[in-house]
Amino acid sequence: MAFRTEPTQRDPASLTGQGGFSMIDLIIATAVAAIAAVGFLAAMTNGQRLQKQTATYADASRVIAEVHALLRSGDLDARVAEFKASPTLTVNAVVAEVRFPAQLVAELLGAPIPAGWRYRDLDADGEVDLDTAASATASLVPVTVTARWTGGTATSSFFLTEP
């Protein structure tokens, strides 16, 4: 005798939880996607901000290098006179101010600037001036370049020597 088995029908209530996504699964997946999107947008915003800052730092570096190059090229006395007459230089959003502070030489020497030097503070304004009647043929020329831009400042100080 052969037994014949009929396929049994499953109760639809027993199918819940099997296959497909439930509402909880969809809510969790949506929350994870939203968190990932917010993180991605934050990273993109920070990346753009850093890129802009880097470009501004590069401009500041360029303007300081340009001042160095201008002072080293040509007649030093004429270049110093030009920067004393017009002490600012602008590149994009960076404004550089050029000064010739006598204090830098005094700190380097550990004493006041010798009276015979060509570049010394003649009018007591803290900046060196050219003394054409000086007995020395050469002296140190202190230079400070301060670059300013929105949100930052960079300063470079150095000395030039006359040939």
Question: Could you please describe the fold and organization of this structure?
Answer:
With 163 residues, the chain is an alpha+beta fold. It has one domain. Helix content is 42%, strand content 21%. The chain has a four-stranded antiparallel beta sheet with strand order 1-2-5-6, sandwiched between helices. A two-stranded antiparallel ribbon has the order 3-4. The model has no long low-confidence stretch (mean pLDDT 86).
Report the end-to-end length measured between terminal Cα atoms.
122 Å
Average pLDDT for all residues: 86
Apparent shape? rod-shaped
Number of domains: 1
**Largest sheet entry:** 4 strands, antiparallel
Helix content: 40-55%
Quaternary state of the chains: single chain
Number of strands: 6
Order of helices and strands: HHEEHEEEE
List keywords for this structure.
four-stranded antiparallel β-sheet, 21% strand, two-stranded antiparallel ribbon, 6 strands, 163 residues
Summarize the structure.
With 163 residues, this protein is of the alpha+beta class. The chain contains 3 helices and 6 strands.
SSE map:
Elements: H1 23-72, H2 76-85, E1 88-91, E2 94-99, H3 102-109, E3 119-120, E4 129-130, E5 140-149, E6 152-161
Antiparallel strand pairs: 1-2, 2-5, 3-4, 5-6
